[in-house]
Design brief:
single chain, 563 residues, alpha/beta, binds adenosine-5'-triphosphate, binds magnesium ion
């Protein structure tokens, strides 16, 4: 029997402005099927439901029968999924991704452990967890639960677990690159010069070798450049080169190049109007958290720059989930955290929601935490004094429910259960609720490598990004110039070698006419001769030594001519 695997549709579809009520099937809540015994408490939520769609999260109340939804209208006001290990964070992320996709909202998520690939395949009644899922659905009154897959596109910076994701050095820009490489102010200044010169000299910076050759060129021409831009030291250039080498060793070279990712390939729906779920393989990225953080930040910045201002749309244009979000912030320089905070604050009005998934809310910097309106808090442990402090702090951020103590609830909730608070009308946080989270419709746990390959080959992204396109850019142009200079230098040398015989001829001709040859002119010829061969030797040595990868001192100074 064929495996029902979700694939990208071949027709590119604009996401519909709003999915009609009920078209998101069993996942959509409408106020008609919600039971409200705690009318006063939920009155705002009910009003919200009549206004806009929600996606089902689970069931709350004493017997878990009151369905809890995430209001799509406020889903761009970001969110947090937190909880100790094994408490159900990733499954919650999975059901939220399903809900958004069903509502026609494209999703990007980072898959740290590979377990989110199950989104591409329908769950099965044959699975051993089916019984547990069925009784969970019964408890929360989720009668229309069914198994289905989501349309998934797999991406991978390393091009193995998904289609390659690339950007160019130029698109990344000096600011983010300096952050990624953790450069000092002086080094960042040199990087700025490199970008500036690349622009003015028409030397496109696409991949890492473009940047590397650009830096070599700056080194070779640092005297002239220092006059124009202030001190350009070789030690700073060397430091940047070394950092680039580290980045290259981490696989960063794969991130830079063409074809660069088009954002429109992330923000799309399939022909049925379901949002594509873009799964970014992040297992290997964990070994390179700096690269991971910078790439994600670049993506956010790009989205921020490219997307139009939309205010608060009826549903988000795109939702981003960062699983194991602490990796974004661990040891991150303050400037990077500030940037994430800034982007998170501003990107909301572009209709992009960001959801951080992490063990402890304290993992997320306070300024960012304050912006996360929709919250799902799974159990937190309270073994140590510090745990208890964190738990108390987490509890204090919720709007209290008179029925229970938030702090106790966070400690007591079981696996796949959480303390939830969603934004309601006018973006006011809802009263905290103890919610049993709905089970996923897609497969819980990873799909096989063969199934992943099948999704990848049937995706309409197949073939678009898989091959690197090495266009003529800074590296090639500078190498060509170096080669041209080498040829020219060789010509000068040959000419210089011929010079003595020509000179003899000239002299004999002079002798014939009875004139003397000036000594100074022959000295000049000799010095030009030795200069020419010096360049030529250097060029040949350099080109041979590094198979033409490096440039030669001084010979490219001509690039400044005519400026
Ligand atoms: N909503 C749910 N419905 C049904 N089962 C669930 C649900 N949430 C969690 N579970 C069960 O709990 C297990 C652990 O959940 P999950 O992997 O999401 O935990 P986690 O918090 O992400 O853990 P880790 O910190 O190790 O990544 C799941 O494999 C599943 O069996
Ligand atoms: Mg997890």
């Amino acid at each position: 029997m064929a495996v029902p695997i979700g694939t990208a549709q071949s027709d590119r579809e604009e996401c519909p402005p709003n999915v009609p009520e009920g078209s998101s099937g069993q996942l959509s809540l409408s106020h008609t099927n919600v039971n409200f015994p705690y009318a006063e408490q939920f009155i705002d939520f009910r009003q919200d439901l009549s206004m806009a769609q929600t996606i089902l999260i689970g069931g709350g109340g004493d017997d878990y029968s009151i369905q809890q939804g995430l209001n799509l209208k406020y889903a761009n006001r970001h969110g947090l999924v937190a909880g100790a290990t094994g408490t159900g964070k990733t499954v919650t992320l999975q059901i939220m991704a399903e809900g958004f996709s069903n509502a026609g909202v494209p999703v990007i998520l980072t898959d740290v452990k590979g377990d989110l690939s199950g989104l591409a395949k329908a769950g099965s009644a044959e699975n051993k967890l089916h019984g547990a899922f069925a009784s969970r659905c019964q408890k929360i009154g989720f009668d229309s639960f069914s198994y289905h897959a989501c349309p998934v596109t797999f991406w991978d910076l390393f091009g193995q677990q998904g289609h390659p994701v690339r950007t160019t050095v130029a698109e990344m820009g000096p600011l983010l690159l300096a952050r990624l490489l953790e450069l000092s102010e002086a080094q960042e200044g040199i990087l700025n010069i490199a970008f500036r010169l690349a622009d003015t000299e028409g030397l496109p910076l696409l991949d890492l070798k473009d940047l590397q050759s650009m830096l070599v060129w700056i080194g070779e021409n640092r005297d002239q450049l220092s006059l124009r831009y202030g001190n350009v030291s070789t030690s700073s250039i060397g430091a940047i080169q070394r950092r680039l080498l580290v980045l290259e060793n981490q696989g960063g070279d794969k991130l830079f190049g063409e074809p660069a990712l088009a954002l429109s390939d992330l923000i799309r729906c399939n022909s049925e109007g379901k949002g594509m779920v873009n799964i970014l393989a992040a297992d290997k990225l964990m070994a390179a958290p700096g690269l991971y953080a910078t790439f994600l930040l670049w993506l956010l910045s790009e989205l921020f720059e490219e997307l139009p201002e939309v205010g608060d749309p009826d549903k988000p244009k795109l939702v981003f989930f960062f699983d194991e979000a602490h990796l974004l912030f661990d040891d991150a320089p303050k400037a990077l955290v500030d940037k994430v905070e800034q982007v998170a604050r501003l990107i909301r009005s572009k209709g992009v929601g960001i959801y951080f998934v992490t063990q402890n809310p304290a993992d997320v910097p306070e300024d960012i935490l304050g912006q996360l309106g929709n919250r799902i808090q799974h159990a937190l442990r309270a073994f140590t004094a510090r745990d208890r402090k964190n738990l108390k702090m987490a509890a204090e951020t919720y709007r209290e429910n008179p029925r229970f103590s938030t702090e106790t609830a966070i400690r007591e909730v079981g696996v796949g259960e959480a303390v939830t608070s969603m934004l309601m009308k006018k973006g006011v946080p809802g009263v905290v609720e103890r919610t049993l989270i709905r089970p996923p419709s897609s497969q819980l746990g990873p799909i096989t490598a063969a199934e992943r390959a099948e999704v990848m080959t049937s995706s309409d992204m197949a073939g678009k990004y898989d091959k690197v396109l090495d266009r003529r850019s800074a590296y090639e142009i500078l190498s060509e110039k170096a080669q041209a200079a080498a040829v020219e230098a060789e010509a000068v040398e040959t000419q210089a070698e011929d010079q003595p015989s020509m000179e003899r001829e000239y002299q004999s001709a002079r002798r014939y006419t009875g004139h003397r040859v000036s000594r100074s002119s022959s000295r000049m010829t000799r010095s030009r001769d030795s200069f020419g061969s010096a360049i030529s030797e250097a060029v040949i040595k350099e080109l041979k030594g590094t198979t033409g990868r490096r440039l030669v001192r001084g010979i490219l100074g001509g690039l400044f001519k005519g400026r």
